[in-house]
TrEMBL record:
Coiled coil residues, start to end: 111-170
Ranges for domain RING-type: 10-52
UniProt keyword annotations, A-Z: Coiled coil, Metal-binding, Zinc, Zinc-finger
Domain of life: Eukaryota
GO MF, any single term: zinc ion binding
Gene Ontology BP terms: reciprocal meiotic recombination
Biological classification of the source: Eukaryota, Metazoa, Chordata, Craniata, Vertebrata
Name this polypeptide is given: Cyclin B1 interacting protein 1
Keyword Zinc attached: yes
Cellular component terms per the entry's GO annotation: synaptonemal complex
Length: 239
């Protein structure tokens, strides 16, 4: 029975259901539901499932009605002497007190077991929390290290970007100078060269005249002596 309740519980270890209707009561002060009592006490010799006591006596096992009718209550103890009635009542109360004590012991055992399991779970939880804390600390250190590396990469990227922009500006400047020089050379190369007028005015057919002036021919031509020049040269020689 549960504490604070007036209902008995089946003493079968895996049952512990509230009893109603009929129940099986043993001389070793245990009580079982009708289902488990019928199954366990149908074998011979009968053994109490709660304490393993041998129940070989005729009245060691009794199937009783938990809520008897009024006629049964009026007649069950009728005609018995008061001392017998009191003895029967005291034994019935002792059985009830034993069931209450047994239930209290069971509840205390369950509580102690649950408390032990709780402490074990708390211990495991604390160990897991410590392990997670260590892992978290390590991860925080890694994150801080990665942040430093990222900041270093950002700084290097900024420097490289500035250098690249400066190189682009220099390249654009050089490209502009190159384009200006190329355009200037193209303009100079496209201007026509003027030739002397006496060459341009000469007929095509007289080109052989000028060819005779080339080389030694020209020298012979300009050294050709005229009569007047020979007279002047002889006069100078005489004097």
């Amino acid at each position: 029975m549960s504490l604070g309740d007036d209902t008995l519980l089946c003493n079968y270890p895996k049952c512990r259901a509230k009893l109603s209707g009929f129940a099986w009561v043993t001389s070793c002060s245990h009580v079982f539901c009708d289902q488990h009592g019928s199954g366990e006490f149908s074998r011979s010799p009968a053994i109490c499932p709660a304490c393993s006591t041998a129940l070989s006596g005729k009245l060691d096992i009794v199937r009783t009605e938990l809520s008897p009718c009024e006629e049964y209550k009026a007649m069950v103890l009728a005609g018995l002497r008061p001392d017998i009635v009191l003895d029967i009542s005291s034994r019935a109360l002792a059985f009830w007190s034993y069931q209450v004590h047994q239930e209290r012991m069971y509840q205390e055992y369950s509580l102690s077991r649950a408390d032990t399991q709780l402490k074990q779970m708390e211990k495991v939880l604390n160990q897991q929390n410590q392990s997670r804390e260590i892992e978290l600390t390590a991860m925080r250190g890694e994150i801080a290290s990665l942040k430093k590396v990222m900041e270093e990469y950002k700084r290097k990227y900024s420097e490289v970007s500035e250098r690249l922009m400066e190189r682009n500006r220099q390249y654009q400047k050089l490209q502009g100078l190159y384009d200006s020089l190329r355009l200037r050379n193209m303009v100079v190369g496209a201007t026509p060269q003027r030739s002397p007028q006496f060459l341009s005015a000469a007929p095509i057919g007289d080109s052989r005249f000028f060819s005779c002036l080339e080389g030694d021919g020209a020298k012979t031509f300009f050294q050709f002596s005229s009569p007047a020049r020979d007279k002047n040269q002889s006069f100078i020689n005489k004097h």
